[in-house]
């Protein structure tokens, strides 16, 4: 194939734009970031994802220069940025509240950073015009921030932070204040702008769907640590821990004991239930406790026992969550364990056979579930 | 529209009579023909004429305006700086003590403030005059400015300053280009407050004024000891008029700009 895939993190010759090296940040007794090492490459759209208080915002504020690491170093293009104040960094930030200057027009907001650089009037005018065009705000240049809508304000904030053509753009929950529909449109717009400008974006968000949509790589954070940093697909398909599996998307976690089998493990999880089989590279000792994580869409739900799948369990439908395009069935096993199965609603509602209380069979293949250490 | 009950009408009348009856009397008698303040002898504006020819009053008025202008300007700069450090300076040793001490002069009896300033000026050998009044007025009015400005700074979105730094401002530029324009209304009202306080201060001014400079309140106070003249009434009426016009204009402007802002925000939501 002639097409090259954008995967700089797999290329040993590629130089990272940002390097966190053993970075720790403490606020008094509280450790916000705990000895983290991370590389982010040029032109990446990198997402820091996690619940509030996980340290993602602190990571971003250290990049912007509003916080300094307690220990460790952060390199930007090979240079230690700790002694550089925020106003001297080739880094710009788009704030969660947008932080538009209320006393300045849209035009002046965008020109604000350019004026500080001592550019000529002509050059500033050209650059602002370019930014207005990029964010489709030409008509609103003379308005004040309170005279435009929320979505437009968001675009002004983006235009202002991009105007100085930073090496790195930081986005702090940039779409948090927008409603669902507008947020989706804006996500694609962001990706488009990121591609057009070739800027490295680091986005902080607690919305996993948003991170998965926009990012080339996602770092899932918890309690000041990066639990897993990988592509959205690998995070989803091969989570390295129960925390990640549970944080991203829907999942059923089954706890059991592993026994080595030919090409993987047999997992016994309850009295009277057949052992489940999973192909996995994880190294487990005989009889070690483990978790099996199964995505609902990888579980089939049928009235008859599935013949083609090695894992088959019988249960009763407890609940059906109808989402329009999909339905999620909550199936209870005789042991009380609930397993979620999802099907696409390709047929009309009236044609589907399964309903509450029905006895059903759940099935999945050897490779469908992910085996995780206890 | 809700109807006014007899209770509302009574309390309204009583309240406003209490507040404004003395002032109404003063204004009415300023147009009195007679020299006797309490006897009405027909309408006349002659006391306004004599007032304008009274050099002593005019001098005192000029001194008062100078003092008020200079002292409120200095107090605004110092008060804003103090407020900024208190709100933005983060935690430093003795911060609570300092912020408490900034507000202490608000509750300090004026006599004590005046007396201590007087002792200081005598101690350092500073001749009492317009300079000492300015210094004294700056001292007590800067804490009012600091209260007004710091209450605005507390609700100020910190990320605006961070955005300014992020876009290449030095901390000084961020203050000048972003913080100051946004808190300007609070700074201006702090200045106006300081100006008004200085205009009508009698106690502190009498401690710190010297023979070379007398302010209008001192002049009024000392002249009514020789009996109230209709001239004083005329002067007071002018002062009331000036203050009223100022207050009414300011409130109309504020109201209008608030309404305009609301209308524009509504229009923006419809876009």
Helix content of chain A: 10-25%
Major sheet characteristics of chain B: none
Q: Main sheet of chain A? A: 6 strands, mixed
Q: What is the multimeric organization of the chains shown?
A: heterodimer
CATH architecture term of the largest domain in chain A = 3-Layer(aba) Sandwich
- Binned, the helix content of chain B reads over 70%
Evaluate the radius of gyration of chain A: 25 Å
Q: Give the strand line-up of the largest sheet of chain A.
A: 6-7-8-3-9-10
Low-confidence stretches of chain B: none
General shape of chain B: globular
CATH homologous superfamily classification of the largest domain in chain B: MetI-like
Strands of chain A, count:
20
Question: Could you list some keywords that capture this structure?
Answer:
heterodimer, A: alpha+beta, Rossmann fold, OB fold (Dihydrolipoamide Acetyltransferase, E2P), six-stranded mixed beta sheet, 22% helix, B: mainly alpha, 2 domains, globular
